[in-house]
Amino acid sequence: MTTAPQPTEPTRRPAVEGDAHLLELLASQQAALRESESRYRTLVEWAPQAVAVHRNGKLLYVNPAAVALLHGRTASEIVGKHIGDFLHLDDRQVALERALMAMEQGSSLQLREEKLMRLDGTIALVEIQSMSIQYDGEPAVYVVAHDLSQRQEDEKLIHQLAFYDALTNLPNRRLLTDRLQQALLNSGRKQCFGALILLDLDHFKGINDLMGHEVGDALLMQVAERLLLCVRKNDSVARVGGDEFMVLLETFAVTTLEAARYAEIVAKKMAQRLSEPYTLFGTHYASTPSIGISVFQEGASSHSDVIKKADAAMYQAKAAGRNTIRFFDPSMQAQALARAAFEQDMRLGLEQQEFVLHYQVQVNKQGQIIGVEALARWVSAKHGQVPPSRFIPLAEENGLILPLGQFVLESACQQLARWASQPDTKHWTVAVNVSARQFAHEQFVAHVAVVLKTTGADPRRLKLELTESMLVKNMASIVAKMNAIKALGVSFSLDDFGTGYSSLSYLKQLPLAQLKIDQSFVRNLLTDPNDAVIARTVVALGHSLGMTVIAEGVETAEQCQLLTAMDCDAFQGYYFGRPVPAADLLKLSAHIGP
C-alpha cells in the first residue's frame, strides 16, 4: 500500500510567500488609507468654508473655519451641542427638517441661505449645503457653510452708494424720485394730496468758494440734521445735488388748500431752523434758504412735473429776494422756461462775442481823467441791450461768471495796452471787477500773469476791484493770493466799502491801494447826516492806512463839492459820464470838470 506524498518544503513555500504578499498589500492599502484620511482631514481642517458633521442634530465635528464663523474660541465650545442652538428662529424648523431629509435620503441637498446665531448673539447669513455620509461607521450629515456676511456688506454698500448721498447720508435724487412716484400712486388710491418742497441755500456758492469745501460740507451736514428735525418719520428728506434739498410730504389732505397749509407750516419751520447761526470750525456763519413748494395728486402731474414745479417755485422765491417761500403758480412754468432759454442765449452770446466793454471815467479833484472802470455790456442779437443787473446775477449762479470774467480781464488789458501808446491816455489806469468765484479759482494768479504777458499791458496801470464779502474768512490764503498778484505790479481796490464785513484788522492785513465809497452812501450825502459821516470816516480811514479813496455814484456838482471838501481823492459817476465804448471816451474829456 502506498501513501500520498506529503507536501515537501518546496511545495509549502509558495503558500507562505502568498500570505506575505497579501499582508504587504493590506499594509500598503492601510497606509494609503491613513494618508488619504490625513490628507482629507487636513483639507477639511484648513478649508476656508465652515464644515460640520452632526448626527440627529448633535454636532460631532466642526473645523476651525466653523469655530471662527460662530465666534468661538475652540471646537470644544461647539461639539456636543445641538445644531438647533445655532439656527435662527426664522430658519430653525426648516433647517432641522432638511437635516433629517439628508440622513433619510442619503443624498445631498441644494444650496440654501440661512441665518445662524453665533455664540456672542450676533447673526451670520450663510449659504448651506448638506449631504449624508458615514461617520465612525454610522450615518451622519456633512454640512458645508459659506459665510455671506461680506457679500451682504457689499450689497449694503452698493445700495447705499446708489440711493443715498455720501456726505449727509440722506436719500439722493434717485431714491427721492422713487418715493415720489410711490407717493403719487398712494395719493390717487387714497384720494388725497401730497406736497414736494425744494430748497436751495442762499449764497452757498460764495461760502463754498471763499471758505473752502471743508466748511461748505460741514454746513451741508448741519443743514441735513436740521431738516430732519422739521419732518415726521414717514416724510423723506433728500439731498439732490450741491446745496439743493427736497422734502417729500405724504399728507392725508383731501384738498389742495389743506395740503398747502401743512406744507407751508413745515416750510416755515425749515426756514426758521436753517436761518439760525451755524458754528463751523469755531466760526459763526449765517445762511438762509429759498423754498419752493408744489402740491400734487396722481393724475394731475407726473413725478417730473412735480419736481419742475417745485423748482420753478424755488427760483421764484430767489427772485423775490431770497430767504422766502413760494408755491408753484402756473405762470411760473413760463418764467422757468424763459429763464432757461435766456441762460442758453447768454452762453451763445459769449461764444458769438456779443459781450463788449464800456468804460466809465474816474477823475481826480482837478477834474482830470485818471482812469476808467471796465464794465461788461451785452448787446444781444435777440434781446438787444441787456442790463448788467439782469445777466450778472445769472452768470454768478450758473458759473458763466468765469468765462465772462476772463473776457473782461483780457479785453480790458488789450485796451490798456492800446491807450499806453497814446499821449493823452498813457497815464490812465483800468479797474476790473473780480467775482468771488473768479478770485477763488486756483489758476487765477497764473491767468492774470498770462494775460499781462500776452497783451503787453502795464501791470502798474491795472487795478483789480474786490468786494468786502470776498474777504471774510481764509484771510491767510486771500492775502497770499493778493500778494502774489501785487508782485506782478497789479494794485487792488476794495469796492463797495462800508456795505460788507470788513474790519480794521482786515484792512491792515490786505495789500490794498484804494478804498471805494459805495454809491449807497453818496446818494443821500447831502440829506442824510449819517451818510456824510460815513463818507468822511472812510476818507480819513483810507488816508490813515496809506490808501487813496474814490467815491462812486457821484451824480451832482454838489455831491462832488462836498466830497472834495472831505479830501476825497477821486470820483466816478454819471456827473462825469456814463459808461461808454473806448472810442467815445476822449470826447468826454473836454466836458469833464468839478
UniProtKB/TrEMBL annotation:
Domain EAL: 339-593
Residue stretches making up the PAS domain: 36-106
Catalytic activity: 3',3'-c-di-GMP + H2O = 5'-phosphoguanylyl(3'->5')guanosine + H(+)
Pfam families: EAL, GGDEF, PAS
Entry GO MF terms: cyclic-guanylate-specific phosphodiesterase activity
InterPro entries listed in its UniProt record: Biofilm_reg_signaling, EAL_dom, EAL_sf, GGDEF_dom, Nucleotide_cyclase, PAS, PAS-like_dom_sf, PAS_fold
Lineage: superkingdom: Bacteria
Gene Ontology biological process: cellular response to nitric oxide; regulation of DNA-templated transcription
Identification of the protein by name: EAL, GGDEF, PAS/PAL domain-containing sensory protein
